[in-house]
Amino acid sequence: QLGPPLNPRPGRDVLGGLLDSAGQYLGAAYYGERLEYEFAEPELAAHHRALNRFFDNSCDVAFVDVDQARNRFIAYVNGPSEPGAWFFYDKAARAIVNVGQSRDLDPARLGAGEVLQVSTRDGATIEAYLTARPGGAPGPLIVLPHGGPEVRDTSNWDRQAQVLAAQGWWVIRPNFRGSGGYGQAFAEQGWTRWGVRMQEDVEDAVAHAISARGLDGSKVGIIGTSYGGYAALMGAVKRPDLYKAAIGICGVYDLPDMLAWEEREDDTPGKPIYEFWTKRIGDRSTMGPALEAASPRRRAGEVNCPVLLVHGVEDGVVPLIQSRRMRDALRSAGKSVELVEIPDFGHSDWEDAREQELMTRYVALFRQAFA
């Protein structure tokens, strides 16, 4: 039998527990605007605050290990301009030593990050992470909705965001309703709201960023993977006035077809995977017209911007046929579209060399669209 929850926080999902080297519970981690802990020992909270100050309160400081005497710590530090490093902290020696970098990058060439509190059109509040171009001058904006959709973006270093920011563009990553990390109620507010409430939250975050930072609203592009690919193409459908280019990577573009595929592929008794997605996307038997209206493939004629689609041939999460049919629908409507199929790879899990090649394509498309 389970006991009561430890240190619950309304509107925040627990990320995990922290144990010392002997397995004693020390606290739980949460994500607010940045990584936070609810410590069982006040002294640990003081150490965590001190480490945050050392890193200018701009990074996530995650305790990886703590000794039983609470004198020595290993921390993993990650932030918009810190692409990941492990540090050894010795309290008695008052020393912090960098013991390893995950990526060797020049922080001066990376864009700074901030958290925006966005008021939506129906009175809710969502968070969005904004990455500035180096130097911070106003410029074009790239929208980067996350996949999932029941995951969330954080202030951690993000490769796509930083590559795009390095081109002189700002990048926004909104945590729209339906995202994870903010409690079950927040996630459920996106259920059966694909293409409507979830899409409107993305639009509201874009409008907020343009207004708050004086960005160039005539040069906005959108790119995403998986659910983010869906949001990118649905954005091109619903806001042809806003987006100058759209890139969908391993995306879902036809909701009824996707649900039918999930039903066929789910051979578990009771079809729990199919039921999972039916609950979140919608029931084909009762929501047919709404699901069709929320499917970019069914509305390809409304797209006005150039579209690039990318898909792994071996994708077992979202089948390649989703992108092929989206391409065919756009071609039939006389739209500009290209589909890049990645052989031998699945759901956006390709190697760094292929990712670099694709990022070059993404940058070229946005540059051409903004010219």
List the helices and strands and how they pair.
Blueprint: E1 14-19, E2 25-31, E3 35-39, H1 42-54, E4 60-66, E5 72-79, E6 82-90, E7 95-101, E8 113-119, E9 125-131, E10 141-143, H2 159-165, E11 170-175, H3 184-188, H4 197-213, E12 220-225, H5 227-238, E13 243-249, H6 255-265, H7 272-281, H8 284-293, E14 307-312, H9 321-332, E15 337-342, H10 352-370
Parallel strand pairs: 10-11, 10-12, 12-13, 13-14, 14-15
Antiparallel strand pairs: 1-2, 2-3, 4-5, 5-6, 6-7, 8-9, 9-11
Structure description:
By secondary structure, the chain is an alpha/beta fold. The protein folds into two domains: 14-101, no CATH class; 107-370, Alpha/Beta hydrolase fold, catalytic domain (Rossmann fold). Helix content is 31%, strand content 26%. It has helices spanning 42-54, 159-165, 184-188, 197-213, 227-238, 255-265, 272-281, 284-293, 321-332, 352-370; strands at 14-19, 25-31, 35-39, 60-66, 72-79, 82-90, 95-101, 113-119, 125-131, 141-143, 170-175, 220-225, 243-249, 307-312, 337-342. The chain has an eight-stranded mixed β-sheet, with helices on both faces. A four-stranded antiparallel β-sheet has the order 4-5-6-7, with helices on one face. Strands 1-2-3 form a three-stranded antiparallel β-sheet. A hairpin with a 5-residue loop joins strand 8 and strand 9. Helix 6 (255-265) runs antiparallel to helix 7 (272-281). It is globular. The termini are far apart. The mean pLDDT is 93.
